[in-house]
Amino acid sequence: MVSSTEYGSHTWELSLTVDHQHEGVQKEQVLHVTGDLHVGGLMLKLVEKIKIAQDWSDYAFWWEQKKCWLLKTHWTLDKYGVQADAKLIFTAQHKMLRLRLPNMKTVRLKVSFSSMVFRAVSDICKILNIRRSEELSLLKQSEGTLKKKKKKDKNSKEPATEDILNLSNSPVSSGLPASSGLYSKTMTPVYDPVSGSPASSTITWFSDGSLTEQNCSILALSYSTCSPEMLAEMYQPRTLADKAKLNAGWLDSSRSLMEQGVVEEDLLLLRFKYYTFFDLNPKYDAVRINQIYEQARWAILLEEIDCTEEEMLIFAALQAYHVSKLSLSSETQDSTCESEVDEVEAALSNLEVTLEGGNKTNILEDITDIPKLADNLKLVRPKKLALKAIKTYWFVFRDTSISYFKNQESAQGEPVEKLNLKGCEVVPDVNVAAKKFGIKLLIPVADGMNEVYLRCDNEDQYARWMAACVLASKGKTMADSSYQLEVQKILSFLQMKNWTTSSQAASEPENVDMKPECFVSPRYTKKFKSKQLTARILEAHQNVSQMSLVEAKLRFIQAWQSLPEFGLSYYIVRFKGGKKDDVLGVSYNRLIRIDMATGDPITTWRFSNMKQWNVNWEIRQVAIEFDQNVSIAFTCLSADCKIIHEYIGGYIFLSTRSKDHNETLDEELFHKLTGGQE
Questions:
Q1: Transmembrane residues, as ranges (predicted)?
Q2: For burial by CB atoms within 10 Å, which of 82, 310, 365, 529 has the most?
Q3: What is the pLDDT of residue 530?
Q4: Minimal CA–CA distance to 37: which of 11, 69, 71?
Q5: Distance between CA atoms of residues 217 and 441, nearest Å
Q6: Beta 610-616 vs 59-63: how paired, if at all?
Q7: What is the CATH number of the domain that holds 398?
Q8: What is the bridge-based pairing of β-strands 610-616 and 630-636?
């Protein structure tokens, strides 16, 4: 019997569903509550009524209609707006989730479905031993990228059960409190000099690390599982519009998984979203470096990023033949030698600084006069009817501008033309075998982009001028400390391309156990016969054959970063006042408006010139203001505008990182820059 006092004028019935696995106990429950009852009190009443002895500390209320968690247990039902028609589910906050990593391995682990995605990704990366979690996020595969696979699957047999790495017993995964996740600079882990994977004594770098040595090896080593059949089944973008589909499914970092329709045992992709890989360190980053390498490898194989035939062969030689071969051999090696470790570390120091963005300042810091370049170069200007005018001029590069004169003697007078490279697009046009060293400059002008080609005579000249152009496009001069690093990076990449035919490698490709179709994109598989590909990959392999496994992966990442399209995420947009759709490319330092039909850049806007950006949530329009009274506005057609808004804010947030900040993240600043005010 219920006493009459419980039926006061302010009490009402609230239907609750308890998500539990106990048979014989009803899941649907009804409680008599008042509006001034706080959420914590509601939990207590419910647990007392169902009388199941278990740990309920991870449970919280999920409001089905409003798609939100009631996590503030001190708030009352009135404050939340909960009324009699509300459907509340009392469920665990940590649930099982399947994640496909960049290396195409699937892991199964417990993830918080109530935390913001930014925090959930941070916890996932702690489990996987991946530092710098802010560079990654979770991606739902969009329908467009699954259609091809579904059509093929209709007539195929039942696929084999996927091999899933189960990490559900890890402390963080189980919902236990995690450590602060700091990565101390005083740590001295030992890693295998060949594989780059951590030795058993330092297998976990976090106090709550959960990877066993075997699992860490799976994530830190590269096992080539690719085949032409596998590639054929995967989504391969053919156009810019296809590439835009790849970026449509990024989850909102400021909302929880549950709020975005993710349910238990769903499959999501864990990917590097932001292409600014900060502080790559072979000592601590065996898993991180391998996963970046794998993401780059698949992007090239699936033609998500364009590269030349020469570059494709270099990538094939590095990733396929060299990395996969060393990965297999390193499985049998578990000895570690400190001297070898130091040797690898010293050899990689330049690469590491380059990948970080060149923060060292001791190279040119004492120079007071800004250096200049002066040389004879060929100027190529595209003309109508597909003709090109090629003429040699005396070029002078000073500050962020190029001036050219008829000859060296006239360099004291007025130049024929002065080109300001700040904000321009710099595209390499190189074929080492054909001795072609060109630089394509797309310089912003009032009505679009002015196209200029420079031709250099040799590798050294090209590296110096190309590095100067790249820095100038970012508003930096050759006095910047990163200039020499950029020159060395370009020369290193050219050196890898510069191979000579080895009679042994070219004449006996059949003696080598290699399936070249696994290492190049389908376009090149169709273009060449298998023996031809094998011979050419072996030729390219000569220049990288002496590298260690870690160095080969870092070189691969560096070469990927050198591609013109590196780091661009594409979206289909309609600019305010525009009559047709365009493609917007979002990079770590700029936005590029691209003609959808031709793929040519129309305009570039640098983040360094951006004053403010915001979103009109009613009409879903992104508006951005730049210096010199330049403003743009656009609506996003291929994805939610929140994704682009978050991309811009995310890149600006990542630019604030510093090693001096003890490697802790200002999560509040991230959400302030990316969350918006919906």
A1: none
A2: 82
A3: 81
A4: 11
A5: 44
A6: unpaired
A7: 2.30.29.30
A8: unpaired
Output the CA–CA distances (angstroms, integers) from residue 110 to 114, 274, 393, 491, in the order listed: 12, 24, 64, 46
The percent of residues above 90 in pLDDT, for the chain, comes to 47
Q: How many domains does the chain have?
A: 3
What confidence tens digit (pLDDT) does each residue in 90-141 have?
999 999 999 999 999 999 999 999 999 999 999 999 999 999 999 999 999 8
Q: In angstroms, rounded to a whole number, what is the distance separating the alpha carbons of residues 584 and 502?
A: 44
> Which residues lie closer than 8 Å to 613 by C-beta, 6 or more apart?
622, 623, 624, 625, 645, 648, 649
**Contact by Cβ (8 Å): 455, 438:** yes
Residue 654 to residue 155: CA distance in whole angstroms: 46
- Residue 282 has which token pair? 């072979």
Residue type at 383 in one-letter notation: K
Residue range 433-451: mean pLDDT, rounded:
84
Question: Last residue of a domain, which of 69, 92, 115?
Answer: 92
Asked whether the predicted pLDDT for residue 203 surpasses 80, the reply is no
Distance between CA atoms of residues 210 and 203, nearest Å: 9
> Distance between CA 548 and CA 552 in Å, rounded?
6
Tens-digit pLDDT profile for residues 545-599? 788 888 889 989 999 998 989 999 999 999 999 999 999 999 998 999 999 999 9
User: How many Å apart are CA 191 and CA 282, to the nearest integer?
Assistant: 8
- Report the distance separating Cα 146 and Cα 225, nearest Å: 20
Q: Which of 92, 120, 140 finishes a domain? A: 92
- Please tell me the distance from the alpha carbon of residue 470 to that of residue 141, in angstroms, as a whole number: 34
Q: CA-to-CA distance for 45 and 73, rounded, in angstroms?
A: 13
**What is the C-alpha radius of gyration for the chain, rounded to an integer number of angstroms?**
28
Give me 661's structure tokens.
Answer: 């900040």
- Domain hosting 415: range is 371-478
In a domain, 166, yes or no: no
Mean pLDDT over 227-242 rounds to: 84
- Say how far apart CA 437 and CA 439 lie, in whole Å: 7
pTM as predicted:
0.82
Residue 607 is assigned to a structural domain of this protein: yes
Would you say how long the chain is, in residues? 678
CA–CA separation, 184 and 200 (whole Å): 19
Assign 32 to helix, strand or coil: strand
Alpha helices (H) along 12-91: 39-50, 77-80
Degrees, nearest 5: CA angle 45-48-49? 85
Residue 60: which CATH number?
Answer: 3.10.20.90
**CA–CA distance from 531 to each of 275, 314, 324, 527, 534 (Å)?**
36, 17, 19, 12, 5
Contact 270, 136 (CB under 8 A): yes
Token readout for 255 is 């909302």
Q: pLDDT higher for 603 or 199?
A: 603
User: How far is the C-alpha of 539 from the C-alpha of 582, rounded, in Å?
Assistant: 41
DSSP 161-229: PP-EEE-TTSTTTTTPPP------TT----B-TTT-PBPGGGS--STT----HHHHHHHHS------HH
Is-contact 598 591, C-beta < 8 A? no
